Amino acid sequence: MNSRLKTLMLAAVAGIICTGGLATGGGEASAQSFDCAKASTRVERFICDNPRLGELDSELAEAYQTALRDSPWASANRRIRAEQKAWIARRDRCGNPGCVKRMYQMRIGQLHAEVDVEVDGDDGGGAMAGSGGNASPARMMAVCRDRAVHVFHLRASDVETKYEGQRTDGTHAVNGTAYLRGIEETFQCSFNSSGTSIDRFIVN
Fold this sequence. Notes:
By secondary structure, the protein is α+β, with helices and mostly antiparallel strands. The chain has 6 helices and 4 strands, in the order H-H-H-H-H-H-E-E-E-E.
């Protein structure tokens, strides 16, 4: 083999190794759930330019799939998909990375809450342990507020709740509003007939 051919072959091998290394490194560094080369919207570019947002995007994708997988009802799956679509529309209205981050944290909390409800009905303040028989409206309002604080990553003072009464099927409704920075989110806690635990947490 002449020296020129040998040099060209070595250069080619080096190029392949280098390209492969860059591709692998890019894959490891890219935490988001989509291909940044295809990013076309302002929010997608925010996510690609901000490593933390990329991590949140990946975390949300996993939480979304987990919520769909662990939900035992087709109707719940349809609701989760519809809520996700509506959330994406709200997220895409964000004009800065801070807004995008808050939207991701809120949605990840909601999806985790879906799994918590399906698994054990508890939310970290969820079931009203030791409440005995029926829980009072004030207690249900407090537990619903605690759930919203967990979901939206807010302080208790940023959340308002109101007991709406007992439905004809025996369940109880508590409506509320979460005051994020520049955004108001309304939600509802649906309690079981005894008012001792949240059956569903719904973001309107």
